[in-house]
Amino acid sequence: MLERRSSHDDLIDHLVRSTALQRGEAARVILDVLAYFAESTDDFVRRRHRELQSGGLVNTEIFERIAAELPHRAVAPPELSLRQLRRIVYG
């Protein structure tokens, strides 16, 4: 009987060969990375706003920083104005 393999088994095998990660750890890393890149722009903006706010930054600094970070996402969204960023957070 053939063993069922996940769609990421080749990548898991590669990580196990090329790092000190065990198979389960490599699978978790891959799932974390995929979840990170699957995050929507709105979810990213809200998450970063919470993180930066908890770090003591004020909204002026927060929204400028988020605007600077967005173009560096794996799939960059269209450029958003500071007003559009505020609307994502506050509705």
Key features?
single chain, 91 residues, mainly alpha, 66% helix, elongated
Structure in words:
- The chain is mainly alpha-helical and 91 residues long.
- It is 66% helix and 0% strand.
- The chain is built from 5 helices and no strands.
- It has helices at 9-18, 23-38, 41-54, 59-69, 82-90.
- The termini are far apart.
- The mean pLDDT is 90.
Identify the overall geometry. Answer: elongated
Helix percentage: 55-70%
Q: How many DSSP E strands?
A: 0
How is the main sheet built?
none
Uncertain parts: none
Helix and strand pattern: HHHHH
Count every helix, treating DSSP H or I runs of 4 or more residues as helices.
5
Assign the structural class, choosing from mainly alpha, mainly beta, alpha/beta, alpha+beta, or little secondary structure: mainly alpha
Distance, first to last CA: 54 Å
Radius of gyration: 18 Å
What does the average pLDDT come to?
Answer: 90
What fraction strand? under 5%
Give a short summary of the structure.
The protein is an all-alpha fold and 91 residues long.
